[in-house]
Every structure is written in C-alpha cells, then in structure tokens.
Amino acid sequence: MPTAVRPVRIVVAKVGLDGHDRGVKVVARALRDAGYEVIYTGLRQTPEMVVDAALQEDAQVVGLSIHSGAHMTLFPAVVDELKRRKATDIVVFGGGIIPDDDIAALKKRGVAEIFTPGTPLQEIVDWLRKRFPDEKTPQR
Amino acid sequence: MREDGIETSTISGIPLRPLYTSEDLPGRAEEYPGQFPYTRGIHPSGYRGRLWTMRQFSGFATAEETNRRYKYLLANGQTGLSVAFDMPTLMGQDSDAPTSRGEVGHCGVAIDSLADMETLFDGIPLGEITTSMTINSPAAILLCMYIAVAEKQGVPASSLGGTLQNDILKEFIAQKEFIFPPAPSMRLVVDSIEYCAAEVPKWNTISISGYHIREAGSTAAQELAFTLADGMAYVDACLERGMHIDDFASRLSFFFDAHIDFFEEIAKFRAARRIWARWMRERYGAQQERSWKLRFHTQTAGVSLTAQQPELNIARTAIEALAAVLGGTQSLHTNAMDEVLALPTDKAARLALRTQQLLAYETGVANTIDPLGGSYFIEALTDEMERQAEAYFKRIDEIGGVIPAIEVGFFQREIADAAFRYQQELEQKRRLVVGVNEFTVDDEPPIDILRIDPRLESEQSERVRQVRRKRDQAKCAGALNGLRKAAAGTDNLMPHILDAVRAYATEGEIMHAMIEVFGTYTETAVV
Amino acid sequence: MGWWWFSDTTSPYAGWASNDLSDPGLLKKFRSGDVRALARAITLVERRDPSVRDLEAALRTQAGAPGVAGFTGAPGTGKSTLVDAVVALLRQKQRSVAVLATDPNSPFTGGAILGDRIRMQRHALDTKVFIRSMGARGHLGGLSLATREAIRLLGAFGFDEVILETVGVGQSELEVAAVADTTVVVLTPNLGDSVQMIKAGILEIADVFVVNKADIDGHLRVIAELRAMLNLSPRRGWKAPIIATVATRQDGVEQLWEAVLAHRRHLETTGRAKELAEKRLRDETAEVAAELARQRARQALEEDPRLAERLLEDGTPYRTAEEILNRSANR
C-alpha cells in the first residue's frame, strides 16, 4: 500500500560553502518516503535564495543543512529573511554539526528544531508529523 | 544475519561466511612485499626500514595563529606540515566576499593572497620541511603562492617538497567543492602536473582521494573503484597532453579512508595496490617499477565518529588506525575525538597523535610485514574487493569514462544509494553504533570545544582590502589580463597564475579571471 | 484503501481540509503582485482544490497571454541547463519568465524529491523569474490540466513567457505538447544510440529540435540522422528546425529562441494558433468534465450505501455510472 501523501511541501537546502551533502540527501529521501514533497535546491544556497525558493514553491517548511561551522550566521539569516518577506509562518529546521550551546541560541533566534548527526530519521519525520498532522494544513 | 538480528555482512554489505579455509584460496602463488603486484606492500622491508609518517592535518583562524601552531609543532619534532584551509579559501573566494560570511577561519586557515601565505610560513624554512596542502579547485593558485613564498626565502622551487591534493574529480563525485566545469578543471590539474614535472620535481602533484568519496557515504568497494578510476582518468589526461607515463606516474599519490570495518579496510588497501600495479604495468605500459607502486595516505573515518559519548571516538580511531597500518599506509592522520563537533582542542589533537605513537611503539604491529598476508579470510576479501572494483571499471567504461559518468550523476547516485541503505540499516537496528542507536546514555556532559572569535572575519576582510589597496595596481591588472588571455588559449596556466600571485592579486580575483573564461559548473541533481 | 483522496471527506481531493488552504484574501494578494499568493494559487491548482474555480473566474478578465514553450528530453540531455540559458536570454530581452518544472518520475502516490531548481538558481534573486517544481501526485488526469490552469495563473500574474520543462519519459512529452504552443525536443550526441532515443511519436510533437552539447563528438551525426528522418515525414507546413547548442556556454541559445519565435509566427499566420486555442479549450472542458464526474461518482458511492451495495452485487460499473451522472444532471 502506498504511503499517504502529506500536504506539506518542504524546501531542503544546503547553506554555507561546504559540499557535504550526504546528510541532506539521506534526510530528503526519508522525507520523501514518509510522503512529503521535497524540493531540493542544491548546494551553497544563500539565505535569500532559500527564502525565494520557499515562497515560489509554496513550502510550509524549510530544512537547512550545514557542516562548515557557519550555522550561527546563516540559520538566523534565513529566519530574518523570512521575517523580511513576511513569511514567518514557514517553519525552519536545521541539521549538521552543531554544539548544544548553539542549538539553544538558534532556537531563541527562531529556528524551530535542530537535528544533530546520529538523529534517527524517524525522529525527524515524527517531529514533522506532530507539527503538521495529517488531514490538516499548517496554520497560516 | 545473526540470531540477534544484526547484519553479518561487512559495513559495505559484502556477505561474509562464518569460516574461510584453504579452499578459498586455491592454487595461489607466493607473493612478497616490495614485489609486483605489491599486494603485500611496496617496501620489501615494510615498516622496519621506516615507519609511516604521522601527519596530522591542522590549520585554523588566521595565518598568524596557524603559523604559531606550526612553529610549535616543528619545535616538537614534526617534520611535515599539513595545511587545512577555511571554506572560502577552498571555494576560491576572498574573506570579504558576501558568501564568505560566517565561514572565515572556521574549518581552517583563511588565505586570501600571497601576503597571508607569507605570514603563514614566516620563519619556517621551506627548503627543510615538506608541506601538504588540502585544496582542490584553486589548488594551482595555492601552490603558486607556496612557490612565491619560497622564492622570497631564496629557496628554489626545485628543492620544494610536499603534496597538493589537487584532485578535482572526487570533488565532482563526492565533496562537491568544484567551481569550473570538468574540462577546464582537468586542464588545470594537468597544467600543474606538467609544470611540476619540470619545475618542482619533488612535489607530489596530486593526491587522488577516496577519503571524501567514502565520507560521502560510499561503500569500501566504491571508494576503491571510484578512486582508482579517477587515477586512471588523470593518467589518460596527462598522456593526452603528450607526457610520458614514467615521467609523472611516481608523483601520483593516493588518499584513503580507514573506516570501522576492520578487515574490509585492510583488504581494500591491499587490493588498491594490486589493481594499480597491474593497470600501470599492463594497460599503461609503465616501465619503471616506481610507476607501478601505489603510495597512499590514510585518514581515519570522520564519518564513523559520534557526537554521543565522544570519548568512544578514541577507541574507534585506534582500531581504524590499526587497519591502516596493517594495510600498509605510507602516512596517517588520526582524527581527534571531538572532530565531529568542531575543530579539535589541543588536548584532543594530542591524544590523536599519541594513538599513532602507541601503535608504532607499544603494540609491535609494525614489526612484521603484512602480518595478515596469507590469511584465508583477508586474501579472499582482497580478491572480492578487486572483483567489485573491476566490475565498476567496466560500468564506468560503458558510460564513456569518469567525466561522462559524473555528468549523468552515476557516482553520485551510487553513493547516495549506499548511504541511504546504511542509514536504513541503522534505523532498523540491523547495525548498531554504540552510543547512538544502542547503549545510549541520557545525560551527556558537554565537552570543551574550540571556538573561533567572530571578530576574526572582519579583521581578515580588512587585511585583504588593505592588500588590494597597497599593491602595484597596474602590475596586478596586467597579470590578471595575461591569465585571462592564456586561459582562453592552450598555454600552461601555471606561469600566468604565478605572475598574478606575485603581483598580489587575491585568490578571489585570480579565480574570477578564470571563471570569466571557463564558466562555473552546476551538478546534476541526484538525490 | 489508504489513499488520502479516498478518505471520508466530501471532496475526493480534500483528504486534507481544503478550506485551510484557500485564503479569503488570496485574490487581493494575488492582484497586488504577492509572489506567495501566486505560489499558493498554484498549490490549489495542483491539489485540485475546488476553491481555485472562483479564483480563476475572478482572474479571467486580467488573464494575460504568455507565450508557452515546452522543453522535453531524456535525462542527461542538459535540458535544465538549456532552460536556464533560455531564461537568461529572455531576461536580457526584458521578458519576465516563469518556469514550471514537472517531474513525471515522482510517484503518483507518496512523496517526491524535486530537484530541477538546482540548475536555475542563478536566477533565484531575480523577481522577474519564477520557478515552480511540480510533482505528478494528485493529478488523476495527468499533468496537463493542472499545468494549463497554472499557466493561466502565471499569465494573470503578468509573466510574459512560460517555459514548461519535463523529462521525456512515459507520456510526459505528449502532455507538454498538448499544452505548449511550441514544443522543443532536446537531444544530445553522447547518450548512446541517438536514433533509438527518438521514440515513436516524438517527430509528431517536436516543433523545434535542439542538439545540445554540440561541442562533443558525434553531434554532426545526430543532426544528419535527424534531418534524414524529418525529410521522411513533413508536417503541416512547418519543418521543425534543428538547432545546435552548447547550453553551458550560452551558444546557440539565441538561434533557438529565434526558432521558437518563428514557430509562434507560423502558428499565427496560418491560423493554427486560433485552431489550437479552440481545441485546447474543448479538451480542457472534457478533462474538467471528467474530473467533476469522477468526483461526483465517488461522492455518490460514498454517500449512498445502497448504490454501492448494488454495484457490488451486480458488478455493472456502466449502469451505475450512468445512473450517477443522470442524478447529477437532474440535481
């Protein structure tokens, strides 16, 4: 039986200059298999590009991945750009090598959740399902 | 599968039998180390003649701070340096570029121009040490900066020793730090190989790397096959340029990952030497013995480290390092336990080096050459690795070679499939990672992490702006123009890049001059 | 069945609450040029949300008439790069462009990964460029109906040109041809046997052929083969030109666009444009009717247990279907 289609579009992007895309690709596949429509925008996206894609693609969620250590600069920059474009209802989550202290700081800056290496994929899917239950679209 | 549901295949998925016997190795001829095809090692005396080189990769923040770290390392007996550059440098852009924000000095040292390179090696006699530089798309520029610093020190290029990673193919395949399209990228690689063969003959012009392919999620056999296929693609490109195989083959070196599946890794290293020797002698007709020998550097697997219970990483790294030694590596980098979190602290970096010293001096594993040679299991697994690699060579050939295979996303898809399969095995707990999906603890105490001062970025940006202000503008513009013209033709670009470097053109400016001619590359979407 | 559109709701397309999606202020935002409103409207179209009908009706008066060019070709032909190059050219000409990248490979049910934006990211910050990825999911009648409606929305929003991009697999290129004014079929010399790649039917739909990657060996052979094939089958007064391009270098892109425009002029001068527009309206109406009928049938079977029971007993879909349609007609 096919997986149920979930009415949430997710833009998945690699921000920062590094090209380590193993994690982001594995997550993209897991989200696809969980029934989500994933728009992968590729490597080295600036915050402005990510937000542009999210708006054009009518995404409810933006997933960011970074391994270069610039997360404290780039993740909040995406959140700020969403604010500037009046799209704060779009949920931002992130993944990568991010120390605990930074996670707390990023959540304060408006990043909804951070998943570090070793997080089971199911945990990410469960989080999204909780955030966007089936049979219902996200709150706008 | 075991009775408790755990996979019994290797981490790469090679099925294993519970027992191997002499029946697995029928009619096998005796092999010796130092003899073709070098399965048992390239040196007849193994590590008795000389231990592997303990080469720890380091570099952070500014050239000035890294210079201090280098001087400290050299004072403590290290004879080789290994430079880690930050992301903007690796991507060929200056510290004050808009897309460099948040990245300057994070993953390594920031180098924008010859001025930074002069600071980096200030007071370090380049004629007496060897330096390894991990850089790819802009590799030619950084090598020229090194040559220019040596000139200023009065050291002739012909006496410089070291290694340039300079392996663009694995960037397209795995690490994705590409800038130009494949054809001009290959031209730059061949330009540097050709230039060095004449001018910097002691330099290892390329380090053909499987490490990043493996870290991107490939299997051991994919790492082996794709890396050697890349190696042959470079050989083909050099031959096409009109070079003779024996003039450059011995300057090609390799760089592999040492992952956690102990025996599989040892088999991989042994198979790599055997395959390369055969191809070099039989297909490429290399005459000199030194052209047949595959020399390699190894780094333990960053991807096997865990953020959870990070002290466990010391044990993982030790086992991986042992595999590299038993596989006959020429040099080794052991990861620090906290590398999964950030740049290593001094203490973690020291523990990593001590792990190698412990292997070399306490365990006795270096006393006997290829101690696992003749093991039914190891030999059978070595054969299997070779068989799988040859099968991949055939598929790559059918696609039309390495670059067409990159363009259609063949490697990328193979790797993504392998990475996804492994992740699913973890999710289903058919494989366990201690501390991650089993044997976890709830409360993990935070560990110390080296942090980079955010002020560094603005200071470094100011520094590059100053360089741009102070230099002889006419000379700089002239050199960049010359480079642009040469790029549009067929000249070897190295002398032109060297001119631009000497005129204090920045890395970003030099790259940009070439981008104007070559364009940039966007990869095929393979998820 | 666990498929979402068969779940117990009134609309077959509303497995999720469609009312939450449509925003009462959407029309106003759309008219004020809010990109997000356009994006949301396309989502409504994609999901076959009933509320899009009102939006479309309201926008009909301001509908522009964008030029629609469809690009199709096998994976690896450099089609996305070519589209990217065409977008760059159109921007030089001050034309605004929307790209609809459809992925027929995405499964009909379940999730999808859409990656066509990657090659067009250099236009990311240009407000006169709009890129939208569309998966195949939810399109019971294929992609063409949703694509048509999306084109109409893009026209109403003010885009001058719409480019449809799809991988030439299965039926997708036929669907592109059904919607686009001009269909561009992209080939390359390096993908094995070129003649084999020219599937049956493709000669019928191609208005312009592109041989991309014309900097590699074998492109002349592909062009010669193509020309030979085309000579065997002339088509309604238009001979599809063959353009050689190197999309990565922008080579030949200008000529390609000239060919598209020439074809457009041909359609106009021969009256074929009008003919096509009328045919499309008829086709679309038939498709919409089918969609509505399907919706009513499912609803009737759900709401009327006796009808469903009888259907199971005598197993006569035709009779039941006719009955449902007659009922609807009388309602």
Percent helix of chain C, as a range, is 40-55%
Strand content of chain B: 5-15%
CATH superfamily of the largest domain in chain C: P-loop containing nucleotide triphosphate hydrolases
Q: What is Rg of chain B?
A: 23 Å
Structure description:
The complex is a heterotrimer of chains A (140), B (527) and C (331). Helices cover 40% and strands 18% of the residues of chain A. In chain A, helix 3 links the parallel strand 3 and strand 4 (91-96). Chain A is an alpha/beta fold. Helices cover 49% and strands 7% of the residues of chain B. Chain B has 21 helices and nine strands. In chain B, helix 13 (312-326) links the parallel strand 8 (296-300) and strand 9 (331-333). The two termini of chain B are 29 Å apart. With 331 residues, chain C is an alpha/beta fold. Chain C folds into three domains: 1-62, no CATH class; 63-270, P-loop containing nucleotide triphosphate hydrolases (Rossmann fold), CATH 3.40.50.300; 289-330, no CATH class. In chain C, strands 4-2-5-1-6-7-8 form a seven-stranded parallel beta sheet, sandwiched between helices. Chains in contact: A-B, A-C, B-C. Chain A binds chain C through residues 1-7, 9, 28-29, 31-42, 45, 48-49, 52-53, 55-58, 85, 87, 134-138, 140, and chain C through 1-4, 7, 15-17, 20-21, 23, 35-36, 39-40, 42-43, 47, 106-115, 117-118, 121, 124-125, 130-133, 135, 137-138. Strand 2 of chain A pairs parallel with strand 3 of chain C, so a sheet runs across the interface.
